[in-house]
Amino acid sequence: MAYSRFYNSHIYIYPHVAGYIECAGCWLNKDKSGMSIFPKGVEIYTDDQLIAHLDQHAKAGHSMPEGLLDEILRDPERYGILEQ
Ligand SMILES: [Zn+2]
Fold first, then answer.
1. Which of the four, 16, 42, 45, 61, has the lowest number of CB atoms within 10 Å?
2. What pLDDT, on a 0 to 100 scale, did the predictor assign at position 4?
3. pLDDT at 2
4. Separation of 58 CA from ligand 1 center, angstroms?
5. Distance 76 CA to ligand 1 centre (A)
6. Among candidate residues 17, 18, 38, the one with its CA nearest the CA of residue 1
7. What spacing in Å lies between the alpha carbon of 25 and ligand 1's midpoint?
8. How far is the CA of 62 from the centre of ligand 1 (A)?
9. 10-residue averages of pLDDT along the chain (84 residues)
10. Cα torsion for 63, 32, 41, 10, to the nearest 10°?
11. Cα(77) to centroid of ligand 1, in Å?
12. Greatest pairwise CA separation for the chain in angstroms
């Protein structure tokens, strides 16, 4: 389940099954030449990295859903499914 998808924001971020949060096709990686249509994704492993990453998006003027960071931080399984 993605936290944010491209239809309502500029970022598409979701918990990857491999145990990290992926900012897919991250606009911060957009090729300045415009040659690359699909920017590379970014793998996020810690909350500090997550906060810094969303901050970079905000500074770049990318739109994202209200409360996105809080929503992600509230998810106990954001870095993978917890063991039962
Ligand atoms: Zn990103």
1. 61
2. 76
3. 82
4. 10
5. 21
6. 17
7. 7
8. 9
9. 74 92 91 70 96 95 91 92 65
10. 10
11. 19
12. 47
Q: Which residues contact 34 (CB under 8 A, 6 or more apart)?
A: none
Residue linked to tokens 């209200």? 66
- The string of DSSP codes covering 19-84 is TEEEEET-GGG--TTS--SSPPPEEE-SHHHHHHHHHHHHHTT----TTHHHHHHH-TTTTSPPP-
Distance 26 CA to ligand 1 centre (A): 4
Full-prediction pTM beyond 0.85? no
pLDDT of 36: 62
Instruction: Calculate how far, in angstroms, residue 84's C-alpha sits from the geometric centre of ligand 1.
Output: 30
